[in-house]
Amino acid sequence: MMKFVLAVMIMAFTVMDATAGDKEDVIAARSAAIEAWNGTDVDKIRAHYADGFTLFQRDGSLLVPGGWNWETVREMYADGLKVTVGPVRHLDVKIYGNTALITGYGTVNVTLPGSEPTITTDRATSVWVKRDGVWKAVHQHASLLTPPQPD
C-alpha cells in the first residue's frame, strides 16, 4: 500500500496542434494535480487523470494498468492519509502537438494512517495529453532519486 501512495505523488491523444500557451497550461494542470494530492478531495485529484491512465511505480514493479484505485485512495484519505508534494526541481516540459512530456524531481512526504511520515526524493516522467482543450495525465513513471534531495 505504501509503494502505491508514494508513487502517486510524483507527481500523466487526440490530433490537435500545440498553441503558444500549451507549455504554461500543462504546467498549470500539473501544479493543480499536485495541489489536489496535497489536499483530501479525491474527486479533484482524479479529475487530472485520463481514463486508461497507466503507472510504473518507484519500486520497480510491473505496469499498473488503470492507474490508481480511486476508492482505495478515498478510504486512505478518510482514514488520515496526509500527502505533501514539495516543489519540483529541474522541471522540463516538452510539447509535441497535443502531447506533453514532463520530467523533474522533488520530495514527497507521505504519512499513512497510523504510521510515521516517510520523506523520499523521487524523479518522475509523466505524459499528458490535451483533449477538448484540457490537459490530463495518461502515464507516469517514478523512481527513487539517488542521492536523495540533491540540488
What is the averaged pLDDT score?
Answer: 85
**CATH class membership:** Alpha Beta
Percentage of residues in DSSP E strands: 35-45%
CATH architecture tag: Roll
User: What is the gyration radius calculated from CA atoms?
Assistant: 15 Å
Contiguous runs where pLDDT drops below 50 for at least 5 residues: 4-18
The helix content is 25-40%
Q: What structural class do the secondary elements suggest?
A: alpha+beta
Profile the largest sheet.
7 strands, mixed
CATH topology value: Nuclear Transport Factor 2, Chain: A
Distance between the termini: 29 Å
The secondary-structure element order is HHHEEHEEEEE
Number of strands: 7
Q: How many helices? A: 4
Cα shape: globular
The count of domains is 1
Task: Offer a concise description of the structure.
This protein has helices at 2-9, 22-38, 42-46, 70-78, and strands spanning 49-56, 64-65, 82-85, 89-96, 99-111, 118-131, 134-144. With 151 residues, the chain is α+β, with helices and mostly antiparallel strands.
Structural key phrases:
151 residues; seven-stranded mixed β-sheet; 7 strands; 26% helix
SSE blueprint and pairings:
Layout (H helix, E strand, L loop, with lengths): L1 H8 L12 H17 L3 H5 L2 E8 L7 E2 L4 H9 L3 E4 L3 E8 L2 E13 L6 E14 L2 E11 L7
Parallel strand pairs: 1-7
Antiparallel strand pairs: 1-2, 3-5, 4-5, 5-6, 6-7
Characterization of the model:
This protein is of the alpha+beta class and 151 residues long. It has one domain (2-144): Nuclear Transport Factor 2, Chain: A, CATH 3.10.450. It is built from four helices and seven strands. The protein has helices at residues 2-9, 22-38, 42-46, 70-78; strands at residues 49-56, 64-65, 82-85, 89-96, 99-111, 118-131, 134-144. Strands 1, 2, 3, 4, 5, 6 and 7 form a seven-stranded mixed beta sheet that branches. The radius of gyration is 15 Å and the shape is globular. The protein starts with a helix and ends in a 7-residue tail after the last strand.
